[in-house]
Amino acid sequence: MALIVHKYGGTSMGSTERIRNVAKRVAKWHRAGHQMVVVPSAMSGETNRLLGLAKELAPSAHNAAYSRELDALAATGEQASSALLAIALQAEGMQAVSYAGWQVPIKTNSAYTKARIESIDDQRVRADLNAGKVVIITGFQGIDGIGNVTTLGRGGSDTSAVAVAAAIKADECLIYTDVDGVYTTDPRVVPEARRLHRVSFEEMLEMASMGSKVLQIRSVEFAGKYKVPLRVLSSFTPWDIDLAEEASSGTLITFEENEQMEQAVVSGIAFNRDEAKISVLGVPDTPGIAYQILGAVADANIEVDVIIQNVSKDGKTDFSFTVHRNDYAKTVELLKGSVVPKLGAADVVGDQRICKVSIVGIGMRSHVGVASKMFRCLAEEGINIQMISTSEIKTSVVLDEKYMELAVRALHRVFDLDQEADSIA
Ligand code: ADP
Ligand code: ASP
Ligand code: MG
Q1: Which of 7, 39, 41 best tests ligand 2's pocket when mutated (most atoms within 8 Å of CB)?
Q2: pLDDT of 421 strictly over 50
Q3: How do residues 278-315 score in pLDDT, each as one tens digit?
Q4: Residue 215 Cα to ligand 3 middle (Å)
C-alpha cells in the first residue's frame, strides 16, 4: 500500500464526463489498496472566465489594488471542481471529502496572485486517509497569515499537488494532464517533438522556468527540495487500463543523472511569450546603476529575468532587462516616475513583442560549442538575437516574437530532437 497524490489539470476536469472518469481512475487506485489524495484544477476555462468577469467590471482589474478580490474570485474555480469530484467519487461508492485550501490549511504568504506556500498542516488529511477516505484538496490556493484567500499564480495547482505530497510524505505525485508526458518541446508547436521517458530534475527545472508550462516552476522546486517522486502522464488513457501500466507511463522526473542522460547534449527546448523588454537609455555608467534600477523594481515585487548592459559611449550606457508582461506597465511607470529622473537617464523604452527561446540539457556541461551551434542555426534562419543569457545547462535568447515558432522548430531539428532515436530515454 502506498500513499499517492494525483493532480488533474483543467482539461482533465473539463466536463462532468471527464470528472466522472477522474473519479473512476482514482477509485481504481484506491481499490488497489493505495491511500489517495487528489488535487484538481478548476474546470478548463473557468479561471479565465472568472478573471474575465472582473475585467468587465473594472478594466484595470489586473492592478494590485484588486488582487485580494481577484484571488477570492479565482479560488472558487477549484472549490467547485473539488466538490464535484468528491460527489462523483461518492456516486462511485467511495468515501470522499473535499477541502478548500483554508480548511487544510495550506498557509501562504500574502503575495496575492502569486503567493508562496509556507506550510501545510497534514493532520486533518491524515485522519481522513486513516479512516479510508479519498481526500480532495483544491489546487491553486491557500490562506495567508491574516485569513485571506490567496492563489499561487497561473498553473499553481501543480505546486499545490507537489507541496501536499511533500507535506504528507507521499510515495509518489502523479501529474495527470492533456499530454502523455514531458516532450522535447511543446508538442502543440512542434509535431515532431518526442516524449521523454525520463527527464532529470535539473533539466525539468530549467524547462519549467524557461516557459514549458507542462509543470509550474514552483512545483519542480518543491519536488527537488523535498525529493518528491514526480511523474507527468495522460488523463486521457481509458480509466480502466492496467494500473501497473498506467503507473509506469508518461515521464518520470529523476534525481539521478544516469549515463544515458549524459549522452544528450540538448534534451529540450522551452519558449515563452510572457515577457517584455524594458530599456533605460542614456544612464550614466557609474557604480550602483544596476542596483538603483533593479533595486527599485525588486522593491515593487517584480521579478526580472534576462539582464543586459551595453558598453558605454561618452560615459553613458543603455540598461535592458525583461519582466513578465503583466508587470510591464507597472515597471515602466515606476521607472519613469522615480528612477529615470533620479539617475538623469534619457528615456525608458519597451518592447512587448518579444519571446524567449531556450535550449536545455545537462549534457551542455560537458560539451563546448553548444551555444555557438544555437547562434549559427538562428543566423541561418535570418533571426536576430536581442539578448542572451546562459547557465550551466541552458542558453536562452530573446527574439522578436514573430520568429518564435521558426526558431523552436529549427533548433529542434539542429539538435537532433526530431529524430526517432530516444537519446535520453
Ligand atoms: P494542465 O491543465 O493539465 O495543468 P497545462 O496546459 O498547464 O495543463 O500544461 C500542459 C500543456 O503544456 C500541454 O498541453 C502542452 O501544450 C504544454 N507544454 C509546453 N511544453 C511542453 C513540453 N515540453 N512537454 C509537454 N507539454 C508541454
Ligand atoms: N486554475 C488555475 C489556472 O488556470 C490553476 C491551474 O490550473 O493549475 O491557472
Ligand atoms: Mg498546468
Answers
A1: 41
A2: no
A3: 999 999 888 888 999 999 999 988 999 999 988 888 88
A4: 6
Q: Which phi-psi region, left, alpha or beta, contains residue 310 (left: φ > 0; alpha: ψ -120 to 50)?
A: beta
Domains, in order of start, for the chain: 3-257 (3.40.1160.10), 268-414 (3.30.2130.10)
CB atoms within 10 A of CB 195: 19
3-class state of residue 186 by DSSP:
coil
- Taking CA atoms, 320 is separated from 16, 275, 296, 317, 408, in Å, by 48, 13, 14, 10, 24
Atom of ligand 2 nearest to the CA of 41: 7
Question: CA-to-CA distance for 87 and 78, rounded, in angstroms?
Answer: 14
pTM score above 0.85: yes
C-alpha 275: how far from chain center: 14
Other beta carbons within 10 angstroms of residue 107's beta carbon come to 18
CB count in 10 Å sphere of residue 59: 9
Sign of the four-CA dihedral 374, 277, 214, 204: positive
Query: Closest by alpha carbon to 66, among 51, 80, 79?
Result: 51
Calculate what percentage of the chain has a pLDDT beyond 70: 96
Report DSSP state, residue 168. T
Closest CA to 3 of 42, 28, 37, 27: 37
Torsion from C-alpha of 178, 181, 182, 186, nearest 10 degrees: -40
Give CA–CA dist 32/36, Å, rounded: 11
Is there an atom of ligand 2 within 6 Å of 138 CB?
A: no
Q: In this structure, which residue's CA is closest to atom 5 in ligand 2?
A: 155
> Model confidence over 83-142: pLDDT tens digits?
999 999 999 999 999 999 999 999 999 999 999 999 999 999 999 999 999 999 999 999
Atom nearest to 10 CA in ligand 1:
2
So what's the pLDDT on residue 386?
95
Displacement of CA 41 from its chain's centroid (Å): 14
Say how many Å lie between the CA of residue 289 and the centre of ligand 1.
39
CB neighbours (10 Å) of residue 405? Answer: 14
